[in-house]
Amino acid sequence: MNKEEILSKVRTAFVAVLEHENFQLSDETTANDVDGWESITHMMIITEVEKTFDIKFKLMDLMNMNNVGDLVNSIQSELQ
């Protein structure tokens, strides 16, 4: 699965949790860029992403994620 396909599915997970589509996701996107992406919804987004891709992130991976690009890279790594 390429990065564009992963990003598309990640966006779907964000929409499911945040219940709006008023945002753009790119590698540089952070929680400050998306309305409603807060600490509680962050964990809900991570859970939704794990369900979507049938993966489980390691704690260190989660701690090292600073933006959507890091999330996509972690997903890609888990899928390989």
From TrEMBL:
Gene3D superfamilies: ACP-like (1.10.1200.10). Residues 1-79 form the Carrier domain. It comes from the Bacteria. SUPFAM superfamilies: ACP-like. This is Acyl carrier protein. It comes from Aquimarina rubra.
